TrEMBL record:
The lineage of its organism: Eukaryota, Metazoa, Ecdysozoa, Arthropoda, Hexapoda. It is found in: Chromosome; Nucleus, Nucleolus. It comes from Camponotus floridanus (Florida carpenter ant). Keywords: Chromosome, Citrullination, Coiled coil, Nucleus, Phosphoprotein, Ribosome biogenesis, rRNA processing. It comes from the Eukaryota. Pfam families: Cgr1. One of its GO terms (biological process) is rRNA processing. This is Coiled-coil domain-containing protein 86. The keyword Magnesium does not apply.
């Protein structure tokens, strides 16, 4: 009764109480107990919307640190590019050496062949299948 009669004192107290309670309500939503779900899966929780998730912007770096990071990244990329180029060059050199070795081996094989010229073509007709398989044509003039 006294509060109602004394109008000056009551509103001041209520303002303080209402301000503090409203700031608490803004920070935390009151926890409303959930009823039993219709599906019976009581272990399932309510989904939160993406808009309710609090996102942090992360730590802001100073300009000097950013520039230093960029330079380090450039240096690392340049070194990795050099290493890749070096590996590629080594691979290409290896391939070239292999080609040259195969070519040299083929030339040596051709040089060391024992060649017997067949002057009588009638001989070829008399040969057996196995002997015919062994015959290879060669250019004997360009040796």
């Amino acid at each position: 009764m006294e509060d109602i009669l004394n109008k000056n004192a009551a509103p001041v107290q209520n303002k303080d109480v209402s301000e503090s309670s409203s700031s608490v309500e803004r920070r935390e939503k009151p926890h409303i107990p959930r009823g039993k779900p219709k599906s019976g899966r009581i272990w399932k929780e309510e989904k939160t919307r993406f808009s309710s998730i609090i996102k942090t912007r992360g730590i802001r770096l100073s300009l000097a640190k950013k520039q230093k990071l960029r330079e380090d990244l450039k240096r690392v990329k340049e070194i990795s590019r050099e290493i890749k180029a070096q590996k590629q060059a080594e691979k290409e050199a290896k391939k070239q050496r292999r080609r040259e070795n195969l070519k040299r081996a083929e030339e040596n094989r051709k040089k060391s062949e024992i060649v017997q010229v067949i002057k009588n073509p009638a001989k070829i007709k008399r040969m057996k299948k196995k002997q015919l398989r062994m015959i290879e044509k060669r250019d004997t003039l360009n040796k």
